[in-house]
Amino acid sequence: MANYNKLATLMGDHQDLAILRRFQRLNVKSLLYMQAEILHMESELDIIELEDKRSEETPRSLLHTSVFNLKESYYTPNSAQWKHVLEIRDKLDRYSKFEGYP
Q1: What residues contact residue 88 under an 8 Å CB cut-off, 6+ apart?
Q2: Distance CA 57, CA 67 (A)
Q3: Which pTM value belongs to this model?
Q4: How big, in percent rounded to 5, are the helix, strand and coil portions of the chain?
Q5: Which of 12, 19, 34, 91 is most solvent-facing, going by the fewest CB within 10 Å?
Q6: Is 58 helix (H, G, I), strand (E, B) or coil?
Q7: What is the pLDDT tens value at each position of the chain, 102 positions in all?
């Protein structure tokens, strides 16, 4: 580790000497995987929304009419749609902030 410490110190002190790999191919592949995951999650959300809309249960069948109702469903048995939205939001946030590709 001493060599890594010396190299890191040298590169830190003289940034013009820093040579680091960007792993461009792997970063692009990771982005493509994330895109596929997000597309799959979007399809799942479409199915959940349709099931909720067609439900005979009044609270569940109205989830699509109000974000307030959707958010309030979090602690109920009808929470699948909102929980899935939150999972998608998290994945989209990570995808949007991905620093591995310009």
Answers
A1: 38, 41, 42, 45
A2: 18
A3: 0.78
A4: 75, 0, 25
A5: 19
A6: helix
A7: 579 999 899 999 999 988 888 888 998 999 999 999 999 999 999 999 999 999 998 889 999 899 999 999 999 998 999 999 999 999 999 999 986 555
